[in-house]
Each structure stands twice: as structure tokens, then as C-alpha cells.
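# nightly structure sweep
# worker-07 picked up a monomer target from the shared queue
# config: single-sequence mode, recycle default, output format = C-alpha cells
# input follows
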Amino acid sequence: MDSPPGRDLVVVAASAGGVEPLRALVSRLPPSLPAAVLVVLHVASSGSSALAGILDRSGPLKVAPAEDGLPLVRGEIRVAVADHHLLVHDGHQRVSRGPRYNGYRPAADLLFMSAAVAAGPRVAGVVLSGTLDDGARGCALVERHGGVVAVQDPEECAFPGMPSAALRAGGRARTLPARRLADWVVEQARSPVTAEETLPDDELLRDLARYLTPRLPSTPPEGEPSGFTCPDCSGPLYLRPGAADIRYDCRVGHSWSMETMIAGQADAVERALWVAVLRLEEGGGCSSA
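# output follows
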């Protein structure tokens, strides 16, 4: 009788300060890794997709940009492309230009959330250096569906926000230095796991459907108006009812944690202030003699 498979889907998230630990992780993964690896790195929407080439030169595994509809392949690494979300659905990569999530596209949360639904206990998640808390909700859901999570030790991170948030959200994540994360991934990929039945999570499935089949919502999101406006589109934000963590949604589909919403509001206020300063300077320079 064949033994149960190991954790054959590895999802990795990184942001500011995350390229070097990501390279360290990839460089130590063996060519025989019995798992597919998907990577999200926060980059500007106008950024290039050079990360795949960098990682391809860093270790023995093939690394390439993600492509919508391609099947997951063990021993292969796929990287989210700029300004596109990367998700998992029915054993395949899905690439989406759906609304920003936590202010990011690609977003770590969406990758981890979709992996939890698609592969349950066969998921191993890794969170590296980065700011704010993208990925925290996804890590909690990976653990809730039977998967496991490890984070880069916040003490050695250039930016400890993302690993620290993942630790707070999940509760069972391992904390490891970057140099030991690859060993943990290999151990998880080679350790048999038994699938456990989990109850459907309607809220999670609705969230993912917005990105797997993107369309403009016809009605406002559920919940009460929060009094805040969306940092991305300036539309009203609604406080999601009954959520385990505080989340804000707008009618367009942008979704925010409290931490990312506050950071987005701060950026929006700063932009508005600079516009006001420029307008005042322009008005002062146009006074008549």
C-alpha cells in the first residue's frame, strides 16, 4: 500500500528585505524536492519580473514566472509576476488581476488562503522578512486546514513585521533562521500526512471567488459603513461582520486588515498634503503685479 504523500505544496511570502533570505532558501532546496513551490514577493506594479531569473540561478530547482492555468509540478518553483495575484485552484496555478488585497498585488494572503482550500494539510507555508501583516490571515487559515507554517526569525529580519504578524495570527508557527528553513521544507515535504475533512468556510470561498472569477460587485459588501474610505479607490469601507480578524472591504473589492488600512490611509493623507502644498505654491507664484 502506498504511503500518504507529504506536504507537496510549499507557499512562500516575502517583502522588504526578503530577497536575500529567499535566495538562501532556494539555494538549499534539493533537486529531488517532492513538492511544488509558489512564491509571492511584494513588488511595485510597474516592477519587472526579474525575481524568477535571480532565483533560477540560486539553486538546482527550475524557477519560472507563474502562468495562469498551468498545473503544479513537484520540484519546480513558480513566482508571482508584478501586478498580478498568484493563487492555487484545483491543482493549477491561477494568475489574476483582481482587486488589491491589503494594498498589494500580488498578495501573500491570497496565495496562502487559496493553498489552504486547495491542499489542506499538504501545505507548508514560509514567511520571510517584510513589513506590516500581509500573510498573517493566510497563515492562520493554513494551520486551520491542517497545514504547517514556519517564519524567518524576526530577530534576524531586516523588517520583522510579516513574520511577527504570522506568529501572532497562527499560534503554532515554527521560528527558524533563514539558513534552516530549507531543511524544514524538505522535512515537511517528505513526512507523510493524512488528509482531514474540514468544514467549508463560506467567507473564505467568497473571498477567493472574487479573484478566481473577477467581476465588479453589483451590491455593497456585507457589514456596516466604517466611516473610513478605501486608500486605493476612495470609496466607502465596510466593516466585515463576524470576522475573526478585523477586515474592511470596499465596493470595488479592495480588502484590508486594520494594519494595512491604517498604513494605506497614512499614505493617502501624505499624498493629499503634498498636492495641497503644490497647489498653494502654484497659487502664490501666479499673483498679479
